[in-house]
Design goal:
It is a single chain. The chain is 83% helix and 0% strand. The longest helix has 33 residues, at 166-198. The chain has 16 helices and no strands. The protein has three domains: 1-129, no CATH class; 131-269, no CATH class; 306-405. It is an all-alpha fold. The two termini are 33 Å apart. The protein is globular and about 55 Å long. Keywords: Membrane, Transmembrane, Transmembrane helix. It comes from Arenibacter algicola. This is NnrS protein.
C-alpha cells in the first residue's frame, strides 16, 4: 500500500507538470515567450499520457492484482526504468522536439511498457486469470502493445515519405486511438469489473460475453473513423460507423449492468464517489455519441476541418473520461484522498475550458462572434486544472491552511 501510494503521487506529479505546461501553452497565445511552442506541445502530451495515465494505471493494476510480497523487487525495477525514460523525455522534448535523444527515450519507454505487460500477464495469480476484470485488462494491455505500431512506423514514414505524408498523421492517429480507447478506457473498464467482483456483484457470463465482444470489435473497427479525413471510399465510413455502433452497444450493456446494481453500488460507495462515478458515465456517453457522429461524412469533414473540435474531443476523453475515472478508482481503493473542493475545482476547470474550446469551434463552423479576451479566459480557466491537482496531491496541507485562515 505504501509503495502504491508513493507511485500514485509520482503520477500525480506528472499530471501537475503536464497541466502547468498546458497553462504555459495557452498563456503563450496571450503573451509570447521565448519557448518553442511545438516542442512544449510534444512535452505536454507525452508527460500527460505516459507520466500521469500510464503510471497511475500500471500502479493500480499492480496494487490490485499482483502478489506484492513476492513481486515487489521486480516491479520496482520496471517502475524505475520507466522513470528514467520519462525524465529523459522531459529533459529532451522541450529543447529539441522529436530528435535523437527524445526518440531514444520514447523508444525505451515502449520497451518498458512491453516489460510491464509481460510481467503482469505472466505473474498475475492464477485465481485472477479467470475473472472478467483480468480478461478486460489483458486485452487492454495487448491494445497498448498494438498501439506502438504507430510510433515504430513513424521513423520509416519520415525517412521514406516525409512528415507531410498522410501516413504520418495516420500513424499518430493509430497510436492515439488504441491508447485512448483500447488501453486506457478498456483498462478502466476492467478495474470497474474488479470493483464489482470485490462487492460480490455477479455478472452473467452471457452478459459479459456480449459486452466484451461488442466493445473489443468496436474498438478495432472504430479506428477507421480516424482515417475519414483522407476522404476514403464508402467502405471505411461503414466500418468506422459499425465500430462506433458496437461500442455504443457495449456501453449500453455496461450501463444496464450499473442500473441493475444501482442500489448495491449506491450503498457501497460514499456519496462523493457515487457522484463521481455518475459523472464518468455521463462523460463516456457523450464521448461515444461524438465518436458515432464522426461516422457521417458531414461531421467527419467538420471534425477534420475545425481543429478545435478535435482538440475538444481529445481533452474531453483524456481530462474527462480517463482522468476523472482514475480519480474515482484511486479514491475508492484508498490510494488518494479526494476532497469535494478538489473535484469541484477540477470539474470547473474542465467544463470551462471545454466549453471555451468547443465555442471557438462553433464560431469557426457557424460564424459565431468570438468575444474579446477569449484567449485570456481560456488561459485562466486552464489554471484551475493544476490547482485541482495540487488539492489532490496535498489535501491535508490545503485543509490545514484553510482552518488556520
Amino acid at each position: 500500500m505504501i509503495v502504491a501510494k508513493t507511485h500514485i503521487k509520482v503520477s500525480l506529479g506528472y499530471f501537475l507538470l503536464a497541466a502547468l505546461l498546458g497553462v504555459l501553452l495557452r498563456t503563450f497565445v496571450v503573451t509570447p515567450m521565448p519557448i518553442n511552442y511545438r516542442f512544449i506541445v510534444h512535452t505536454h502530451s507525452h508527460i500527460a499520457l505516459l507520466g500521469w495515465v500510464y503510471i497511475a494505471l500500471t500502479t493500480l493494476l499492480y496494487h490490485l492484482f499482483m502478489d506484492k510480497q513476492v513481486m515487489d523487487r521486480r516491479y520496482r525495477r520496471i517502475f524505475w526504468f520507466t522513470q528514467i525514460c520519462l525524465i529523459g523525455m522531459l529533459l529532451s522534448f522541450p529543447f529539441q522536439g522529436y530528435a535523437l535523444f527524445s526518440i531514444i527515450f520514447s523508444t525505451l519507454f515502449l520497451l518498458a511498457s512491453y516489460w510491464f505487460s509481460a510481467f503482469f500477464i505472466k505473474h498475475t495469480p492464477r485465481s485472477f486469470k479467470v475473472t472478467k476484470s483480468y480478461i478486460c485488462i489483458k486485452y487492454a494491455l495487448w491494445f497498448m502493445i498494438g498501439s506502438s505500431i504507430g510510433p515504430w512506423a513513424l521513423g520509416a514514414i519520415m525517412t521514406i515519405l516525409g512528415p507531410e505524408s498522410i501516413w504520418y498523421r495516420l500513424a499518430i492517429y493509430f497510436y492515439l486511438h488504441f491508447q485512448y480507447n483500447g488501453w486506457m478506457i478498456l483498462a478502466l473498464t476492467g478495474i470497474f469489473f474488479y470493483l464489482l467482483e470485490q462487492l460480490q456483484i455477479n455478472i452473467s457470463a452471457r452478459t459479459f460475453r456480449y459486452f466484451f465482444l461488442t466493445t473489443v470489435l468496436g474498438i478495432i473497427l472504430s479506428f477507421f473513423l480516424s482515417t475519414l479525413w483522407t476522404g476514403p471510399q464508402l467502405i471505411y465510413y461503414i466500418l468506422g460507423g459499425l465500430g462506433a455502433v458496437l461500442q455504443l452497444i457495449g456501453f449500453g450493456i455496461l450501463i444496464n449492468i450499473c442500473l441493475g446494481n444501482r442500489m448495491a453500488l449506491k450503498s457501497a460507495l460514499p456519496r462523493l464517489q457515487f457522484n463521481i462515478l455518475k459523472s464518468v458515465v455521463f462523460l463516456l456517453m457523450v464521448k461515444m455519441i461524438l465518436q458515432w457522429l464522426t461516422a457521417w461524412p458531414y461531421f467527419a469533414n467538420l471534425a477534420a476541418s475545425v481543429l478545435d473540435f478535435t482538440i475538444g474531443y481529445l481533452h474531453w476523453t483524456f481530462l474527462g473520461v480517463i482522468s476523472i475515472g482514475l480519480f474515482f478508482f484511486l479514491e475508492f481503493f484508498r490510494l488518494i484522498k479526494l476532497s469535494k473542493m478538489a473535484i469541484t475545482v477540477y470539474l470547473g476547470g474542465f467544463l470551462l475550458t471545454e466549453g471555451l474550446i468547443f465555442y471557438r469551434g462553433m464560431s469557426a463552423w457557424l460564424g459565431w462572434p468570438l468575444f474579446e479576451d477569449y484567449s485570456k479566459f481560456l488561459a485562466v480557466g486552464s489554471f484551475l486544472i493544476p490547482v485541482a491537482v495540487m488539492l489532490v496531491l496535498w489535501p491535508y496541507k490545503f485543509n490545514r491552511l484553510k482552518v488556520e485562515a
